[in-house]
Write a structure and sequence with these properties.
Layout (H helix, E strand, L loop, with lengths): L1 E5 L1 E7 L6 E6 L3 E2 L6 E6 L7 E4 L3 H8 L2 H6 L20 E3 L2 E4 L1 E2 L8 E2 L8 E7 L4 E8 L7 E2 L6 E6 L2 E6 L6 E5 L4 E2 L6 E6 L5 E8 L3 H4 L17 E2 L6 H13 L16
Parallel strand pairs: 8-11
Antiparallel strand pairs: 1-4, 1-6, 2-3, 2-5, 4-9, 7-8, 10-11, 11-12, 12-19, 13-20, 14-17, 14-19, 15-16, 15-18
Length: 274
């Protein structure tokens, strides 16, 4: 899975002796290469470099098979995912619940999101499954003066801050809170089974893109990783506002005031904001 941070260009994809599919992209584009396909990237600018972040399932495959010859020299063609279609990266997508199944997203920072109250505080979200691969992605946005519910999940989620200024708290059971400030361009990777919580103290809505191995969960359920949105009191991995450490809210109120931001959490958190 590839997210373009800077620049513009094009990519060509093909299997051995097969038809080639080409498409153009710019900053903010998100796409995935079909499994085991050849591909080549081209920089279309004569004056600036291209920068992108790529995330793959290679570490999992290497650990699973333990055979470099098989990993790097297997020529199997996954024709059920890609068969050289000319419009492979420009065809229509399909929306199921919160999940958009597609092969190319042109502009993630401006992509229209859907209401996602499960994570709290007026947040919005969309989940992507691309090229029928096992990698998943989602975009989340939450309003000025708000913060999301704390939750945890498995390892490997790469969170790229697209817009906004704020901070995240991370902690494990019975361990102190750790704080990490962020701004556009920051990359956050919560460790395995570590609670984390995101706070917006900037002057605009905060939006991020998360890339991760999903096992194609997005295509199997309307809500990805249901346990991460279920209360810890019910055996899940999400901490509801009423169950969080009161220090978390007090600290946010102080930080918002320091940044001149009005807190908009009164309808979500019972504690007073002033």
């Amino acid at each position: 899975m590839i997210y373009v941070l800077k620049g513009r260009g094009a990519t060509t994809v093909w299997y051995d002796d097969g038809r080639k599919s080409s498409f153009e992209w710019g900053a903010g584009a998100l796409f995935a290469i079909p499994l085991n396909a050849w591909h080549q990237h081209f920089n279309a600018s004569g004056s600036e470099p291209v920068r992108y972040i790529g995330m793959t399932s290679a570490p999992i495959a290497i650990n699973l098979f333990g055979d470099p010859e098989f990993i790097y020299n297997c020529d199997y063609k996954f024709a059920n995912r890609y068969a050289g279609e000319a419009d492979y990266f420009s065809g229509d997508g399909k929306l199921t619940g919160m999940v958009w199944e597609t092969n190319f997203v042109a502009d993630v920072p401006s992509y229209t999101l859907l209401a996602y109250p499960e994570r709290g505080a007026g947040g919005r979200n969309i989940k992507f499954t691309l090229a029928k691969n096992q990698m998943g992605a989602h975009v989340s946005e939450f309003p000025i003066g708000t913060y999301k519910k704390g939750h945890r999940h498995g390892p490997g989620a790469h969170v790229i801050i697209l817009n906004g200024d704020g901070y995240s708290l991370m902690w494990k059971d019975d361990e102190p809170l750790q704080r990490f400030d962020w701004q556009p361009g920051t990359l956050i990777i919560p460790p395995n089974r570590t609670f984390h919580q995101h706070f917006n103290v900037g002057a605009s809505p905060a939006r991020y893109l998360a890339l991760r191995f999903s096992g194609n969960e997005e295509s199997k359920a309307t809500v990805r990783n249901v346990a991460s949105s279920r209360s810890v009191k019910l055996g899940g991995d999400q901490i509801e506002y009423e169950d969080q450490d009161p220090l978390i809210h007090r600290t946010f109120v102080e930080e918002a005031a320091r940044h001149g931001v009005v807190v908009s959490m009164d309808e979500f958190v019972a504690a007073p904001t002033r």
